[in-house]
Design a protein that fits this description.
Blueprint: E1 9-13, H1 18-29, E2 33-38, H2 47-50, E3 58-61, H3 67-77, E4 81-84, H4 91-99
Parallel strand pairs: 1-2, 1-4, 2-3
């Protein structure tokens, strides 16, 4: 079955990372309404910044480890789809956070 996603509201957590930025760009080309949720821009240089994505989407700055903010954002925008890409991709850094 083929589903047209044009005009759909899509929330992407971790949208400022490499994969999230590419997904945002692809979905913008499909004419989707994109909502991003991320706590920072993780790299310099950043694909998110190079593509000027913050100017093209509805960005909300927050941490997924604070679920109240994320929940409120989801309830406010009522997305059709959610792509959860927020993660700590660096294993050593993730382990050090566990010890804190």
């Amino acid at each position: 079955m083929h589903t047209d996603i044009k005009g759909k509201k899509i929330l992407i957590t971790g949208n400022t990372g490499f994969k999230g930025s590419w997904l945002t760009q692809v979905l913008l080309q499909k004419k989707c309404e994109i909502f991003g949720f991320s706590d920072n821009i993780p790299t310099n240089p950043s694909l998110f910044e190079v593509l000027s994505l913050e100017e093209k989407i509805n960005q909300c700055w927050g941490n997924v480890n604070e679920p109240k903010n994320l929940r409120n954002f989801i309830l406010k925008i009522k997305p059709d789809f959610i792509f959860h890409l927020a993660a700590q991709a660096l294993v050593r850094k993730a382990f050090s956070k566990l010890r804190e």
